[in-house]
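It is worth pausing here to work through a concrete case rather than discussing structure prediction in the abstract. The textbook approach is simple: state the sequence, then state the predicted structure, then interpret. We follow exactly that order.
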Amino acid sequence: MGLLSGKQKLESMHYGEVFSVWKHLLMAKGCVTKYQFLVNHAGDSQLKNFMEEMINKTVRPEIDQLENLIV
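Step two, the predicted structure:
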């Protein structure tokens, strides 16, 4: 049933699974906000580039996957 059965497209998610995905999505969006805050206050250009890369290549794709999973 649900997410772990291998039939994600055929079966709806259990309310516990929806809550867990929603909670993870909320935390990921919070990470983007924190990283952007740190980018704005970082003085080192290499650090800024690293953090922007972390946001764009790691966190945002995860957010997109989670949003697609819920919708």
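Step three, interpretation. Residues 28-70 form one domain. The first helix runs from residue 15 to 41.
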